[in-house]
Write a structure and sequence with these properties.
two-stranded antiparallel sheet, 2 strands
């Protein structure tokens, strides 16, 4: 497994544990109310599980399992995928920490970085899915 896939997967597992911990805290508070402020963690819970765990895990496994190129760098230019890794995680944390900051545009910036991450991953790995041959795309 390539190093970048290991980073995606390890961080996805950390997000899974964070999301499950917040979910357990929310569920315990729902059953036996002990603090109203716990519900402020509901968006972070969803963000950690949907984008932190599921999406990041899927991107890491996709980077590992997509077909390799017949080139000196079989996975293409990995800088695009590293950019996706950094911008996805920065976007997750900007969105999660946005309620703590008085800046109203912070969640939008977080979502924008997450969108940049998906585009960066697609650009960096598109040739592995549809390789170019003689100036035309190979028929599937």
């Amino acid at each position: 497994m390539p190093r970048l896939s290991r980073w995606f997967t390890r961080l996805a597992l950390i997000y899974l544990s964070l999301g499950l911990t917040l979910g357990a805290l929310l569920l315990a508070n729902k059953g036996l109310p002990f603090a109203a402020w716990v519900w402020a963690f509901l968006p972070a819970h969803g963000e950690f599980l949907l984008l932190g765990w599921m999406t990041q895990f899927a991107l890491g496994i996709a980077f590992w399992i997509l077909p390799r190129l017949n080139a000196p760098r079989p996975r293409g230019d990995e800088r695009w995928t590293w950019g996706a890794f950094v911008s996805l995680n920065a976007g997750i944390w900007l969105y999660v920490c946005a309620p703590l900051a008085p800046l109203r545009w912070l969640p939008l910036l977080g979502r924008g970085l997450e969108a940049v991450a998906f585009l960066s991953f697609a650009v960096g790995n598109w040739r592995r899915v549809y390789p170019w041959q003689s100036g035309r795309v190979r028929a599937g």
